[in-house]
Each structure stands twice: as C-alpha cells, then as structure tokens.
C-alpha cells in the first residue's frame, strides 16, 4: 500500500496564508504596532460547501471588557472572513462579492458611529439575508461571514477634526 501526500484543502491553504500574513504584524516582530488594531479582511472561499437556509430566532449577548497591563504578541488583531470555514464565498460576476459590497455599505453608513465589531455583525446579518438560487437543485444557497477578534479594546473610526 502506498501513501500519497494529501493535497492541501482550501481550508488548510487559507489558514496557512492567514498565519503567514498575520505573523509579520505580531507585537514581537513589529513593535511599532503593539497596542494598535490590525485589521485583515479576507474575501476568499474557505471550502466548497454552500450554506442552506434555516429559520432563526434573535438573541442578545452581554459585553465583557478587560484591562491588562501586558498583552500577548498576538493581541489586537481582527481577521474578517467573507465566509465561515469550510464554505464557499459567493462572488457576483457583475457586482462583486456580497461580503465586500455589504461591508463597504455598512462602513459608509455606520463607520463613524458604531464600534467595528458591531458593524461587522450588521455585515454578517446583511450577507446572511442574501440568497443564491442553485441551478442543480431547486433550493437556495446562503452565506455567513465571520470574524475572529483578538482586540483588547473597542475600535471606532472617528473622523479627524
């Protein structure tokens, strides 16, 4: 029996690329960015699946703040993905990706008033409301963005005075 090397999956490739890029900006390698937010927005498929629609109920989460004197080298990153791991990111050939369209719209509308993670949650909701008709089966396909936040404080984009 022979063992062939496994072909890297889209998820593995995306994880490796993300780690390669973000590692260059960690506090131990880039001291001038310590304590400053580092935002990475990735419009890329992270798999080949499409999400199916389901019925949802709303829920409310509390907020937790922490103050620390020393922070890890990997702190103050926020990585924004157009789609959850394992899923394909829809890109309209005419108008571009749903994620980038909705992110730009929410930044224009709320970029100077909402905390960035709140804004990203609105983007998630807006993208999740879109549907793609699947030609192969009679159903719809959905997409949900996600973000991983290692921020240690709130992030606002306030206009300069």
Textual characterization of the structure:
This protein is α/β, with parallel strands linked by helices. Helices cover about 25% and strands about 15% of the residues. A hairpin with a 3-residue loop joins strand 5 (about 90) and strand 6. Helix 2 (about 100-110) crosses helix 3.
What tags apply to this protein structure?
9 strands; 17% strand; globular; 161 residues; alpha/beta
Short summary:
The protein has 3 helices and 9 strands; from the N terminus they run H-E-E-E-E-E-E-H-H-E-E-E.
- Helix/strand-derived class? alpha/beta
* Average pLDDT level: 79
Shape: globular
Element string (H = helix, E = strand)? HEEEEEEHHEEE
* Low-confidence region ranges: 1-5, 56-69
How many H/I helical runs?
3
Fold blueprint:
Layout: H1 10-23, E1 38-42, E2 47-49, E3 77-81, E4 86-87, E5 91-92, E6 96-97, H2 98-110, H3 116-128, E7 132-133, E8 140-141, E9 146-149
Parallel strand pairs: 1-3, 2-4
Antiparallel strand pairs: 3-9, 5-6, 7-8
Helix pairs in contact: 2-3
């Amino acid at each position: 029996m022979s063992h062939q090397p496994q072909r890297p999956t889209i998820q593995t490739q995306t994880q490796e690329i993300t780690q390669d890029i973000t590692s260059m900006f960690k506090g131990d390698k880039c001291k001038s960015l310590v304590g400053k937010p580092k935002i990475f927005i990735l419009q890329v498929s992270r798999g080949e699946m499409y999400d199916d629609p389901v019925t949802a109920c709303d829920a409310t989460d509390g907020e937790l703040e922490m103050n620390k004197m020393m922070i890890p080298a990997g702190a103050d990153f926020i990585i924004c993905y157009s789609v959850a791991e394992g899923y394909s990111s829809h890109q309209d050939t005419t108008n571009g990706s749903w994620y980038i369209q909705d992110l730009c719209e929410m930044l224009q509308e709320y970029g100077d008033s909402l905390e960035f993670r709140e804004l990203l949650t609105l983007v998630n909701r807006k993208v999740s409301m879109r549907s793609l008709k699947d030609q192969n089966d009679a159903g719809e396909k959905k997409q949900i963005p996600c973000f991983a936040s290692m921020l240690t404080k709130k992030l606002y984009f306030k206009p300069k005075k």
